[in-house]
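Reopening this ticket.

The earlier resolution said the output was attached, but the attachment link was broken on my side. Pasting everything inline this time so it's all in one place.
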Amino acid sequence: MTHSLVCADTVSRVSSVLNRNTRQFGKKHLFDQDEETCWNSDQGPSQWVILEFPQRICVSQLQIQFQGGFSSRLGRLEGSQRNEALNKIVDFYPEDNNSIQTFPVPAAEVDQLKVTFEDPTDFFGRVIIYHLRVLGEKL
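Inline output:
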């Protein structure tokens, strides 16, 4: 059965936060299920989110809700098992809208994921995400 894999013990890191204002725009807002909060990156050519899970997982889907105008034309999902180099799992191509978008992921057993957002739609390279969900199974 597929379910959300991000839990309280999942460690997350992001490439940047707008004006370093983690209280208003920090990474915790990616997973809080609150429609009013978001992660807002600072400007740059690409942005990323790294997730370190407390146990090995098998990823099957990635769900992302961007703010229209602040999405990415190309996303890359990479994964690894502890202390190994990241390997590309899949590229995905988000639409520039406010809808929750679901991207299928070829089955991959990992305990670390990196989601990279390249070619941002915003002129300054900012990315705004309201929800980020990793779906699959714990192993």
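Reporter confirms the inline version is readable. The longest helix spans residues 22-25. The radius of gyration is 14 Å.
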